[in-house]
Design goal:
This protein is mostly helical and about 150 residues long. It has five helices and no strands. The longest helix is centred in the last third of the chain and has 34 residues.
Length: about 150
């Protein structure tokens, strides 16, 4: 009785999900496409020292171009987009590192001494003008204080 119930349960579950208990022969195109997808996933795995982003993207492109039903089309599209973004970020990072290294090795130069001297002369002249105005004001105050009151 239990065996019959389990058999009916399995059969109804298989029918409900659109599968049968009899294995169908896999389609070679689907098998090849799945192989391309899982190859791409393996290449994109950071733990895989032999995998590269370029190889992963190439496998995903081939998978997405495969004829027939693709079981992982959405995942492949997302992975391809992420892999391309990772490539672009790697290029930007390399450029930034190059520029930082170039800036660190570039000898630090003092500002142009001629420009610096001109700025100092201007500042000295400005201070002299301020001192002259202050002295003139002081002289006027002295004269006003020294003048006799009528």
């Amino acid at each position: 009785m239990k065996r019959a119930f389990v058999a009916v349960l399995l059969l109804s579950t298989a029918c409900l999900h659109g599968t049968s208990l009899i294995q169908r022969k896999p389609d070679p195109a689907e098998t090849r496409a799945d192989s391309l997808y899982w190859n791409a996933v393996g290449n994109l795995d950071p733990a895989n020292k032999n995998g590269t982003l370029d190889a992963g993207i190439a496998s995903l492109d081939a998978y997405l171009a495969s004829p027939g039903k693709l079981r992982h089309a959405e995942e492949a599209s997302v992975l391809r987009s992420l892999a391309r973004n990772a490539q672009q970020l790697a290029r930007v990072e390399a450029t930034l590192q190059t520029k930082v290294a170039a800036a660190e090795t570039k000898p630090r130069t003092e500002p142009d001494t001629k420009t610096r001297d001109e700025d100092m002369v201007k500042e000295i002249q400005r201070l002299k003008d301020e001192l002259a105005k202050a002295n003139e004001e002081l002289e006027r105050i002295k004269k006003r204080l020294a003048a006799p009151k009528p």
